[in-house]
Design brief:
Layout (H helix, E strand, L loop, with lengths): L2 H17 L19 H9 L1 H9 L6 H9 E3 L6 E5 L4 E10 L8 H10 L1 E9 L9 E3 L7 E5 L3 E12 L4 E10 L8 E10 L1
Parallel strand pairs: 1-3, 2-9
Antiparallel strand pairs: 3-7, 4-5, 4-8, 6-7, 8-9
């Protein structure tokens, strides 16, 4: 697979995941859910992001996994979007690398695993002061479950790895920044920023 093809595939996957409804993919604030999100919900939204995306494709939108995503997570790469949560919420920021039809790309399962596992994610968070000044960005711990395989509607068996952060924030406005570096695109960093509004 060429560098450009891998990058294009990753971008297409990101767009498809956002548009499928995993999280609230919008450029305006999303209303906070009526019930607070728990650490367990946040962890579930990272662990099962691809399963949730597939359930949405299948029209199964009322499952616990889907609800955890829609209410208790935001999309790390949804550049320019704003998400709203309550200070009672523990929520997650989620991204994923998925790859299907890798054999048609001339890749083995091991090569796919190595590329997905070798992708580097860095997440930083900064608070916006009342006067609009952006504070210092602080690195966040990124959770990365192992590479897994799941049959996805419309694309067949899909290799994937999710990644994300779990946040429990005081009221205020924050900027979440994601940096991604792909192992076969050396020297390039892809950066995405999302605004988080936490209400009291």
């Amino acid at each position: 697979m060429t560098r450009n093809a891998l990058r294009v595939r990753s971008a297409v996957v990101a767009a498809a995941m956002a548009l499928s409804g995993v999280g609230v993919a919008a450029s305006v604030s999303a209303a906070a859910p009526p019930d607070s999100c728990t650490r367990g919900s946040a962890q579930k939204s990272i662990q099962a992001a691809i399963v949730a995306a597939n359930q949405i494709r299948e029209g199964r939108t009322q499952t616990g996994i889907v609800e955890a995503h829609r209410q208790c997570s935001y999309i790390l790469y949804n550049d320019g979007a704003t998400y709203t949560f309550s200070d009672d919420d523990v929520f997650s920021g989620v991204t994923a690398f998925t790859w299907w039809k890798w054999e048609e790309d001339g890749m083995t399962r091991k090569e796919v695993n190595d590329i997905i596992s070798g992708t580097d994610y860095q997440v930083e968070l900064a608070q916006v002061s009342p006067d609009g000044t952006l504070g210092e960005f602080v690195s966040q711990s990124v959770l990365r479950p192992p590479v897994k395989y799941h049959p996805m509607l419309g694309q067949g068996l899909t290799a994937y790895q999710t990644a994300g952060v779990i946040l429990d924030l005081d009221p205020g406005t924050y900027v979440s920044r994601l940096h991604i570096e792909y192992p076969d695109v050396p020297g390039e960093t892809f950066t995405y920023e999302v605004t988080l509004v936490v209400t009291d």
